[in-house]
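Lab meeting, item 3. Inverse folding demo.
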């Protein structure tokens, strides 16, 4: 998804869920920050590099795709952008364990890990709420792709068609892909940018939805294609419907996180709260444009009567940099970092417990104490202090 949904639409959902204007801004800011909190960003504020929730293109180009490099990539992308739907999924045919482990990382909505992700943010900071909403929304946009480099899972081929509603069905138009990262997508002529085709199984070109370009990130588009893992079964992706479900589910989830309800269940959507605004929201989602920020911004401001400022990555950096070491966890970015470390730790553990080491190793702290990356010491300390209160 793009900033139009992760920032502005998330603000709208937060306000509809009952959060105040200021609370909504914090949630929306941290939702969008997930796409920008790279090791480069963390180095700039002198924060723990293990809290990275994304990787810049230049960082990925410099990342080795050996075992440790692939584990680092998977920890980031599976934890925050391609949440696995079913870690016990069966491919449906005999295959090597290596393939099965990658197949089980395929992203999708309403999986057990989504429930655990939302519950992890319960009674935590607003930063944790925003981070969890990013992950929830991406389960809808990024479904059918996995957050690990894999040609046999994430690759696609020339069979790509955009679908335009017409009568009782759809009119099809073949899409064309190119590999110029600096050239904007040509929506009118159906020309989009995607990653380079390569037969290297572990190439970063085969990470996530790179082979499908930005199509999963546009709310307006409907398309069909053949995934590498699908045994020649065509997938039809209806983004307007998926984004609508994501929006309604975010409201339901945030009402749970506010304490309005006691239980979060997958497959539940707060359509009643959204009903008075359904036409407006669906029109925004279906409007054929690469960036719907202005439309979402106008809608959000009509809901709260307040101005939504543009996202500013530098906004909270100095507070974190200048804080004393023992006070950093109480800063705006410190709370986000704690939420990121907790989420990454949880997902790494869940993947490791299935017998897969694609995201690295996980140690049971309650049984063996602290072993591992020193960046997580602050998370352990923070959690222990919370239990003592």
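The presenter then showed the designed sequence:
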């Amino acid at each position: 998804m793009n900033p139009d949904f992760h920032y502005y639409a998330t603000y709208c959902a937060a306000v509809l869920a009952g959060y105040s204007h200021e609370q909504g801004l914090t949630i929306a800011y941290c939702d969008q920050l997930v796409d920008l909190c790279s090791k480069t960003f963390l180095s700039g504020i002198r924060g723990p590099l293990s809290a990275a929730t994304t990787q810049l293109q230049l960082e990925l180009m410099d990342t080795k795709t050996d075992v440790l490099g692939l584990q680092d990539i998977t920890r980031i992308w599976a934890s925050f952008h391609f949440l696995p739907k079913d870690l016990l999924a069966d491919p449906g045919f005999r295959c090597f364990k290596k393939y099965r482990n990658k197949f089980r990382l395929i992203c999708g909505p309403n999986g057990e890990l989504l429930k655990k992700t939302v519950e992890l943010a319960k009674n935590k900071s607003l930063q944790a709420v925003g981070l969890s909403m990013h992950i929830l929304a991406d389960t809808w946009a990024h479904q059918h792709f996995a957050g690990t480099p894999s040609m046999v899972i994430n690759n696609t081929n020339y069979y790509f068609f955009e679908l335009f509603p017409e009568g009782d069905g759809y009119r099809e138009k073949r899409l064309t892909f190119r590999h110029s990262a600096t050239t904007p997508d040509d929506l009118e002529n159906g020309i989009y940018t995607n990653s380079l085709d390569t037969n290297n199984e572990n190439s970063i070109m085969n990470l996530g939805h790179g082979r499908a370009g930005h199509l999963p990130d546009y709310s307006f588009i409907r398309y069909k294609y053949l995934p590498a893992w699908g045994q020649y079964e065509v997938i039809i992706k209806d983004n307007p419907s998926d984004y609508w479900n994501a929006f309604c589910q975010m409201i339901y989830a945030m009402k749970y996180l506010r304490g309005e309800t006691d239980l979060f269940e997958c497959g539940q959507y707060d359509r009643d709260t959204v009903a008075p605004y359904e036409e407006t929201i669906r029109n925004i989602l279906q409007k054929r444009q690469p960036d719907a920020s202005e439309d979402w911004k106008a809608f959000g401001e009509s809901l709260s009567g307040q101005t939504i400022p543009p996202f500013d990555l530098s906004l909270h950096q100095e507070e974190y940099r200048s804080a004393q070491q023992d006070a950093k966890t109480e800063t705006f970015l410190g709370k986000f970092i704690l939420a990121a470390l907790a989420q990454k730790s949880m997902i790494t553990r869940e993947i490791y417990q299935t017998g897969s080491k694609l995201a690295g190793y996980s140690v049971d702290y309650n049984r063996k104490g602290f072993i591992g990356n020193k960046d997580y010491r602050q998370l352990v300390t923070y959690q222990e202090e919370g239990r003592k209160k």
